[in-house]
């Protein structure tokens, strides 16, 4: 009988500058880590250097691949498997968000159930996004045949969806599942006869560069909303 525990090290990529010096949005598809983000992940790699990862995954987005490559610097095998299914959720264009809906669609975007939001910023639907992430994640988990450590370098909302899955909260609000830049989550999953038997969260949203979250008050969407407000010339 196949019976073992998998340990998932789920990481959000390091800090990224999503806006240029003129406060114009950078296409998130091509955004890479800032020097601050590189340092955040370098510190995490140092903390994880004594752990061997049998499988290493990232999304296909540059910031996620860059994060995985830094995290594998101490690993015997540095092969990173890029997976499109765990790329960040695709948004619409910020300029297409009506000003009278900015509070709901930007600042409160993660309150998808409370605000009955079908799409993220008028882009990808929450249903299709959640399906592609969780279908890949479940398949990756049950396809392993023995106990091992798996590293996944991913994104803010991807991690929130996976954590909600751990809590059996499909398409529930993900607002409370905070994911700071460069954070680490540790998830244990019990696999029995190629089925997921039990799940537990050992660590959530740990930032090795700032363990007590000093000054980390804003959520990711707070930053986007504040930039939107400045670009549109009105006050909250």
Secondary-structure blueprint:
Blueprint: E1 3-12, H1 35-47, E2 55-59, H2 62-71, E3 81-83, H3 102-107, H4 126-143, E4 149-154, H5 156-166, E5 184-192, E6 195-206, H6 220-232
Parallel strand pairs: 1-4, 2-3, 2-4
Antiparallel strand pairs: 1-5, 5-6
Helix pairs in contact: 4-5
Protein name: Histidine phosphatase family protein
Binding site for substrate: 63
InterPro entries: His_Pase_superF_clade-1, His_PPase_superfam, PGM_Phosphatase
Number of strands: 6
**Number of separate domains:** 1
The 3D shape can be described as globular
Low-confidence stretches: none
CATH top level assignment? Alpha Beta
Largest sheet: 6 strands, mixed
Euclidean distance between termini CA atoms:
59 Å
Q: What is the mean predicted local confidence, pLDDT?
A: 92
**Structural class, please?**
alpha/beta
Give the name of the CATH architecture: 3-Layer(aba) Sandwich
CATH topology: Rossmann fold
Question: What is the rounded Rg?
Answer: 18 Å
Element-by-element helix/strand order: EHEHEHHEHEEH
Helix content: 25-40%
Beta-strand proportion: 15-25%
- The CATH homologous superfamily corresponds to Phosphoglycerate mutase-like
Specify the number of helices: 6
